[in-house]
Design goal:
The complex is a heterodimer. Helix content of chain A is about 50%, strand content about 10%. Chain A is mostly helical. In chain A, the strands form three sheets. A three-stranded antiparallel β-sheet of chain A has the order 6-3-7, with helices on one face. The two termini of chain A are about 45 Å apart. In chain B, helix 2 packs parallel to helix 4 and helix 3 runs antiparallel to helix 4. In chain B, the strands form two sheets. Chain B has a three-stranded antiparallel β-sheet. A two-stranded antiparallel ribbon of chain B has the order 2-3. By secondary structure, chain B is mainly alpha-helical. Classes of the chains: A mainly alpha, B mainly alpha. At the A-B interface, helix 2, helix 3 and helix 6 of A face helix 3, helix 4 and helix 6 of B.
Chain lengths: ~250, ~220
Amino acid sequence: MNNASQYGDLATQLLTESRRSTATNTLLKYNDVLVRAIVREQRDLEARIEAALARSAAAADPDSDAGAPAPAENAYMPTILLYQTAILRNKRCLLAYHHHRIEFLKDLYWSVGGALPLLLALPPAGANANANAQAAAAGGAAGTGAAPQDVRSKLSPHEVDFLRSYNESLRTLRTEAFSSAAGGGAGHGLTEDIDLLAPISHPPKDLQVHVRVVRDCGVVYTELGAIDFKRGHRFLVRRSDIEHLIVQGYLEES
Amino acid sequence: MDRARPAVLPQELAEETPFQQLIRHWMNERHAPDILPGQEMLLGRLLDHIRKQCNDVELLRADPDSSEEEHFRIMLVQTEVERVKFVIRSYVRTRLHKIEKYARHISATPETHEKLSKAELDHARRYARLMEYHFNQSVLQSLPEQQRSLEENVAFMPPMTREPDKIRPVFAHALQDCPPMRLPDGTMSEMQKGQISLVPYYVVEHLLLRGEVELV
């Protein structure tokens, strides 16, 4: 799969992976092997371009001014152009692949409401398939000890770092812009005015929502008091209190 | 050319509630390809209002003398608060999405800074640095020295720093009679109040910023 018959073939394979990832809405494993192969190809191309430049300088008319001949007369110009085009294309393809994965990860991040540990443990389906995959993940992760299906295994270490830093940056933004000091006597602690991580797919129609507990979440403080969410029970609770639990998959709307 | 025109708000616009204004800005932000000036004052006012309403609701609920009618009113108020919060949330996240998309461009162009709040600008800068760091770590560091730049712009290829696409078509609804605007083929066109046109974004951009047009 990795033998390239011309410059740029490996890059095209990388792009095909990106397209496949979008088409199936899953995040594929970070293709370290292919990326390294392309980097090797880049180094090879760079060496060749240096050689061509050196040869063209050497073949220049000794009487002319120092340096290579003018581009229009340089016999090596087509060679140099070819290598340069391949270099630029490979580089853009590499960057595009990484950028595409980052965008995918960001969508995934927002779809789980910014819960990083949950995100890293998810199966690598896309943002839209999450709700269905939640229940499957709960059963699957506990049952099989086989090959890890979680998102974390598909990421390169740099991508994990990126997610953490992105999370931090967002948290700073939320604290700076959308929090205010809790009113009244207890002046310490910031509460959020607007929870940016809540879903924005459709506006809330009802104040309250029926939920069914899919996974135990323990005691949660709502406006009706402390409720112990045990698996299988149904509750009528205020939407804004438990929305984050729905997004993360502990509760299911019914 | 338009400076002689008095800035008179038509009757309907002058009576818009803050929430209606927010909805108009929210729709504009969702449809526009570029980032529009942020409405911090409006958001601040609405957030204060929400906070006050929530406090009032708390007081009313704690009061054992409230009647059945009060109970309904409280529910209505709470539902409306949720809906307002939804619009604010969607507005902020749309802006955030666009900011992150053009983060590098924003960091490099001081003119865009006045459209963003300070917190948003900080986030844009941090995000641009984060992306650059990530690209460097995963790709560019392993490449030979001459290939490490993120600013290589080649002829006939789109630039490496993404810029807002102002040619994208948008539906513009005129809120009042508009001054003439120049269409791509050179002709001038005027919109009457209530008219809707499909034009490239840059044609109505100045009208949008002045509030004479909204995007639908």
